[in-house]
Design goal:
The complex is a heterodimer of chains A (about 170) and B (about 120). Chain A is mostly helical and about 170 residues long. In chain A, about 70% of the residues lie in helices and about 0% in strands. The chains are: A mainly alpha (about 170), B mainly alpha (about 120). Chains A and B meet through helix 1, helix 2, helix 3, helix 4 and helix 5 of A and helix 1, helix 2, helix 3, helix 4 and helix 5 of B. Chain A: InterPro entries: NADH_UbQ/plastoQ_OxRdtase_su6 (IPR001457), Nuo/plastoQ_OxRdtase_6_NuoJ (IPR042106). Chain A: It catalyses: a quinone + NADH + 5 H(+)(in) = a quinol + NAD(+) + 4 H(+)(out).
Chain lengths: ~170, ~120
Amino acid sequence: MEVSNYWYFLSGLTLLSALMVVLSKNPIHSVLYLVFTFFCISGHYVLLNAQFLMAVNIIVYAGAIMVLFLFVIMMFDLKKNIPDSKTNLTKLAGTVVAGSVLVILVAAFRTIQYPTPDESTFNPNNGMVENLGKVLYSEYLLPFELVTVLFFVAMVGSVMLGKREVGDRNF
Amino acid sequence: METKTDRFMQSIPEIIRTIPLTHYILLSSALFAIGVLGVLTRRNALIVFMAIELMLNAVNLLLAAFSSYFSDPAGQIFVFFIMAVAAAEVAVGLAIIVMIYRNIQTIDIGLLNKLRN
């Protein structure tokens, strides 16, 4: 089997599970499909020889972010309040807008031809941890440190938002 | 010379040799459009949030593809930063959604029009 067939199979799987995220009625099914989509995208990273991104994608997205989503879904009483869906007209309009975004993007980029990578300048170690670490800790050191400030602000912000007021009931 | 070229050809992953970069653009466009569809058609705030994550991932995939095809590590560093920002965004966003649920007992975004007046 050709390796390119794997690519098409993985892409189809990615698009299908992404579509199921949007279409499924139960939010828990949506989360599970989203985890599957993230694993498919990690597979794409492996095919692109970007091992570091594959690991980070699984740890950060499929691990941390999705667990956060699942916890929040479990906190809500979803049986009691199922949000009433939008009117069919709104749904139709949304579908038309999304379809035209797709059509415009495809029409704009369809004819572009990028040259296949040159063997002499291609670096197969590009996506490896060693290479990326060297770049990250030299050229991009300041943004990397600023990310810690961002995380601190996000942590303080979510604690502030989640804190109960004095008169609140506890469930 | 022949063997040297062969060795260099093998150093390029087969996907990068056989799949044109345009295919990645089309795949990412489709993923992004699915994300737009989710944001526009769903009312559950959590699913809208997940659709935003889908759009972020479409962009990440395209950045990683360009980075790999042109052997430029800056693209993958950028994806790393986008993931970090997305994690912070999800933490704060979910805290806001929990807060909204605690106040009005629903996560239907259609009922969040109180800011209008």
